Amino acid sequence: MRRPRIPEKLFHIPLTDWVRGTIDKMNEYEKKDSHSRSQFWFSTYQELGGKSGSSGTKSCPQHAAFGLWQLGRIKDTNIPFKQIPIKLINQEYGKNAAYAAIALDLLIRGQSVPDEKILWPQVQEIFRIKTHEYPAESQQGAIKVARVLFDEGQIVTGQE
Questions:
Q1: How far are the Cα atoms of 7, 22, 37, 108, 125 from residue 151, in angstroms, in the given order?
Q2: Contact 58/140 with Cβ under 8 angstroms?
Q3: How many H helices and E strands in the chain?
Q4: What percent of the chain is predicted at pLDDT more than 90?
Q5: How high is the mean pLDDT of the chain?
């Protein structure tokens, strides 16, 4: 008998539930702006048991999740899959969205293993090549957002 998978957590909160809860609020209130996103991100964090203001408002995972949502990479969100260059993702949604999109592309194509320590240097190199900018020295949650959503079957691959 197969044991149910335990949801992965970010700051002690089930990450997929956090992302999905935020998206549900954005859709319910028909909002797409960054101010609403930040409010819904934090309120979902609190509803799921989060207590730390600094963890609940950390922007890196929030921007990664929002970017993936806006790019149509998250299942069942009514946003069509968009295939746009990493340089444009970086310009329109920010570095963390670009990092998450690169990580997903690597995972979907099977060109990396779902291990953040292996994935992050690959993402940094591709980001540098595609944007001609220097990536952050350390990943602050964007890779984890992409990997967890991928592992938990929440990703649109564009090949459906």
A1: 10, 19, 24, 10, 23
A2: yes
A3: 8, 2
A4: 86
A5: 93
